[in-house]
Design brief:
three-stranded antiparallel sheet, GCC-box Binding Domain, Homing Intron 3 (I-Ppo) Encoded Endonuclease, Chain A, 2 domains, single chain
Length: about 180
């Protein structure tokens, strides 16, 4: 389910070209997790043209174009939810920042944390170099060390692991 600001929804459902496409009713979830409109048109010469419109990019180009710079030209979701297309959640990012913000593929579930035997290694990359941050007894300890170094190196543009722990009362707390 896509999340939109009211005035953005109004624009998407009143812009003549987007209405002609019936964009709002033809969105689907792309394999990347984003909301996308995609349609193939047959041209007069018999060839085909596929039109692809990523919703988050369309909205950013319309409402946030003043934030785009030569360095920051990729659109991302601040909260990581690619279907949350509210203006306060969208931002232009550099390629490096976008890369750091991607979901992890580590088997531990944490970015920069790898199991080695019975312990966990924390590693971070900066300026093309990999930095060993230490060995830890739990993946959570290693993830917290990664977070500390990520904040130090990259500030708000760094990747932060969210660690979820169950409290004795059964509720879940998030630590970062």
């Amino acid at each position: 389910m896509v999340i939109l600001d009211d005035h953005v929804f109004e624009w998407l459902t009143s812009d003549p070209y987007l209405v002609k496409l019936d964009l709002i009713n033809n969105l689907r979830r792309h394999s990347s997790g984003c909301a996308v409109f995609q349609k193939t048109w047959k041209r007069a010469d018999g060839s085909y043209k596929t039109e692809t419109i990523y919703l988050h990019k369309l909205i950013a180009e319309k409402y946030l174009s003043d934030q785009r710079t030569p360095e920051k030209k990729l659109v991302g979701a601040k909260n990581g939810n690619k279907l949350d297309c509210r203006l306060d959640n969208l931002e232009y990012r550099s390629r490096a920042t976008a890369s750091r913000k991607r979901r992890t593929t580590s088997r531990t579930g944490y970015t920069g944390v790898y199991r080695e035997g019975r312990r966990y290694r924390a590693v971070i990359s900066a300026n093309g170099r990999s930095m060993h941050l230490g060995m830890f007894d739990t993946p959570e300890e290693a993830a917290l060390e990664y977070n500390k170094k990520s904040r130090e190196l990259f500030g708000d543009e760094g990747k932060i692991n969210i660690i979820r722990r169950e409290r004795p009362d059964g509720t879940i707390e998030e630590i970062s």
